[in-house]
TrEMBL record:
GO MF: very-long-chain enoyl-CoA reductase activity
EC number: 1.3.1.93
Species for this entry: Absidia repens
CC annotations in GO: endoplasmic reticulum membrane
Protein name: very-long-chain enoyl-CoA reductase
Record's function text: Catalyzes the last of the four reactions of the long-chain fatty acids elongation cycle. This endoplasmic reticulum-bound enzymatic process, allows the addition of 2 carbons to the chain of long- and very long-chain fatty acids/VLCFAs per cycle. This enzyme reduces the trans-2,3-enoyl-CoA fatty acid intermediate to an acyl-CoA that can be further elongated by entering a new cycle of elongation. Thereby, it participates in the production of VLCFAs of different chain lengths that are involved in multiple biological processes as precursors of membrane lipids and lipid mediators.
Principal place of residence: endoplasmic reticulum
Subcellular localization(s) per the UniProt record: Endoplasmic reticulum membrane
Length: 303
């Protein structure tokens, strides 16, 4: 079977090219096309290819070309996604930022603030919560998460990391660990009930977030892109309880510190997670006709 690959870049001097595939439309898949293109042009690894129909319709990898409506001699459109980096690596880089930056601000106040001081309970608990949160995220990345997409464009790692390295890294650390929140300062005064109440809510939300991540992991067998409807703790109310619980955890940090920097990070993070939740919620409803209608995207009973 012959398939013509044309570039979406009209100035391309490499395309169009013709691929001669061993088989027919009923036995070949888009994965076979991708591998053949990589064999002919080694620069374009399967991860950096986006192959669509001429009207830019996205094709499913594991369906036969016949099922996709393709026949001998048809033309497909190719887009180069650029150099790629693994999602797992991206997550590890993102979460490493706060884990490296917070200890610098916490343990080296003379270097950062030009003065030494004793940390308050507020600062000690905030430091512990932030470090444990990102340690949990690193461990989840290594041992829990299963990714439906193996890679992303390499240069996106800088954009994605900026959110964590600057907003939850430098921004949060500088303002929370400063002398204005030090032991003995009026701004640092918190009752034990206030402190331990915030810590308790944070701990419950972090544990709940982990439970939902494990639930999602168990839906996808290793090495597959299988999708299924999640049920159980949190999922009876919303499609993305992992985002809901993460928002609650950071809200607890906000109320513990009452720092504008924590609220800024939380607002930006929650806004982004809500956008992702709405998209996933719509995909669930589109993909599964039996998807529970009473679920919301991220906020129970609301949205």
């Amino acid at each position: 079977m012959k398939v013509i690959i044309a570039s979406r870049n009209p100035k391309s001097k490499t395309f169009p090219i013709t691929l001669d595939l061993a088989g027919d439309a009923s036995s070949l898949t888009l994965t076979d096309v991708s591998k053949a293109l990589h064999q002919k042009l080694p620069k374009y690894t399967p991860d950096r290819q986006r192959i669509t129909t001429q009207d830019k319709k996205v094709l499913v990898d594991d369906k036969s070309l016949a099922d996709l409506g393709l026949k001998d001699g048809d033309t497909l459109q190719f887009k180069d996604l650029g150099p790629q980096i693994g999602w797992r690596t991206v997550f590890l880089i993102e979460y490493a930022g706060p884990m490296l930056l917070h200890p610098i601000f916490y343990y080296l106040p003379k270097l950062i603030y030009r003065s030494g001081f004793e940390h308050s309970s507020l600062q000690k608990w905030t430091f512990a919560m932030v470090m444990l949160h990102f340690l949990k995220r690193e461990l989840e990345t290594l041992f829990v998460h299963r990714f439906s997409h193996g890679t992303m464009p390499f240069f996106n790692v800088f954009k994605n990391s900026a959110h964590y390295w600057f907003l939850s890294g430098i921004n949060l650390a500088y303002w929370v660990y400063g002398p204005w929140f030090a032991q003995g300062e009026k701004l640092a005064v918190r009752s034990d009930v206030w402190i331990y109440g915030c810590v308790a809510v944070w701990a419950w939300a972090e544990l709940s977030n982990l439970i939902t991540h494990v639930t999602l992991r168990n839906l996808r067998p290793p090495g597959t892109r299988v999708r299924a409807i999640p049920f159980g703790y949190g999922f009876d109310l919303v499609s993305c309880p992992n985002y809901l619980f993460e928002t609650i955890a950071w809200t607890a940090v906000c109320f513990l510190t009452t720092s504008w920097s924590a609220f800024l990070f939380n607002v930006v993070a929650t806004g982004q997670m809500y956008v992702w939740a709405v998209k996933k919620h719509k995909n669930y409803k589109k993909e599964f006709s039996t998807y529970p209608r009473n679920r919301k995207a991220m906020i129970p009973f609301i949205a």
